[in-house]
Specification:
single chain, 378 residues, alpha+beta, Heat Shock Protein 90, five-stranded mixed β-sheet, 10 helices, 61% helix
């Protein structure tokens, strides 16, 4: 079970350890300086005397850190009313400095260190407090400033995390909205195809297509679908989708899917290829009288993944504005999702194929794990 947290994101135990280490370092420095002074004045140069004169001062201030933190919470230093807060902290600093001196003298006398010539214990403590007052005020101010800095960092860090979380939520909401727009678009086209088969009284074909469509619907209607999936899963879905479309095209559709072995493990946006394939079927294959060819290819390097969808239809010059500029719902969504996920590191291009038809090419970063996933252990 972790200790309660304190400003700055540390646990109380970690914060106490840091304060102890700092106090120890400052105490050792003070002890070393006192030992050098004693050597120069023929005083007590024993280690116990040096540590007794240097360490208690800073250890006691370390014990007072929670008290200063409490005073800061009670009287925060803000732009409005800062003069009153500073005045109150000055009074508190005077009181703590007096108490600090009284305890310091007590600890030193318990260690056998005497302050000769000062008289009674109370008088010694008071004179010591007056002598050390500037240093005490400086120590209180340093602790107060450190606590203010830590609190400022904590609040700034919380704002940064809140802003980042809001940005992530907005990005996920936008991606989900784009995906939601895509689903009705695909379903509308599929239902139109089924209606066309029914009008032609090709009922068996329509039933087969409905059965395939129901399988796709289960995939589409996932409650929280992942934004990215492995390419092998994307191609598996695409094969089911093309099985439905093949019923409509019958023997007029020839399909080839080829992917590098290394490309299959790469992560791609969920349903990134289906709109491109749908575009090729609608504007390419369906415009041919004879059988048409559809090819889906994937190539990978160490840093880049390239996806291609090509058909042997009339090509961009014979297509519509949707085909040339990607103004259709599906293509607009693909472009928007790629930009949302990968920024300027991605590119979608529609161009004439080298042997006619149209070639759609997606270039994106090669990712071995989805966005936001923790790095694999070394």
């Amino acid at each position: 079970m972790r200790s309660p947290s304190v400003p700055g994101g540390l646990t109380r135990r970690d914060a106490a350890l840091q304060v102890f280490v700092v106090a120890s370092l400052l105490g050792l420095i003070a002890a070393g300086q006192h030992n050098l002074t004693m050597r120069a004045t023929d005083g007590d140069i024993t280690l116990l005397h040096a540590l007794g004169m240097g360490m208690p001062y800073w250890y006691l201030w370390a014990l007072f850190v929670p008290l200063v933190a409490g005073a800061l919470r009670r009287f925060p230093l803000r732009r409005k009313g800062w003069l009153r807060a500073v005045s109150l902290h000055l009074v508190i600093a005077l009181g703590i400095t007096l108490l600090h001196s009284w305890l310091e003298i007590g600890v030193q006398q318990a260690l056998g260190i005497r302050h000769g010539g000062f008289g009674a214990f109370t008088e010694v403590s008071l004179r010591h407090a007056l002598w050390m007052l500037p240093y005490g005020l400086l120590a209180y101010g340093a602790i107060l400033g450190g606590l203010v800095a830590v609190d400022y960092y904590r609040r700034m860090r919380q704002e940064q995390l809140a802003t980042a979380a809001l940005g992530t939520q907005l990005a996920e909401a936008r991606l989900q909205a784009l995906r939601t727009q895509l689903n009705p678009h695909f379903l509308f086209n599929a239902m139109n195809s089924i209606a066309m088969l029914v009008r032609k009284k090709e009922n068996d074909t329509a039933v087969t297509m409905i059965a395939g469509l129901s399988d796709l619907l289960r995939y589409f209607l996932e409650e929280r679908p992942p934004q990215e999936v492995q390419l092998r899963d994307e191609l598996a879905f695409l094969e089911r989708y093309l099985a439905v479309e093949s019923v409509r095209f019958q023997d007029r559709l020839q399909i080839r899917i080829a992917a590098d072995a290394g490309a299959l493990d790469a992560y791609v946006p969920n349903l990134v290829l289906q709109p491109l394939v749908e575009n090729a079927l609608k504007h390419g294959i369906s415009r041919r009288v004879s059988a048409g060819r559809l090819a889906i290819e994937a190539e990978a390097t160490a840093t880049t993944l390239t996806l291609r969808v090509r058909d042997d239809g009339p090509g961009p010059n014979g297509g519509t504005a949707d085909r040339i500029g990607g103004a259709g719902v599906g293509l607009r969504n693909v472009r928007a999702r790629l930009e949302q996920l990968y920024g300027s590191a991605q590119h979608l291009d529609l161009s004439p194929g080298p042997e006619g038809g149209t070639l759609a090419t997606i270039t994106m970063p090669y990712r071995s794990r989805p966005l936001g996933a923790a790095p694999a252990p070394a």
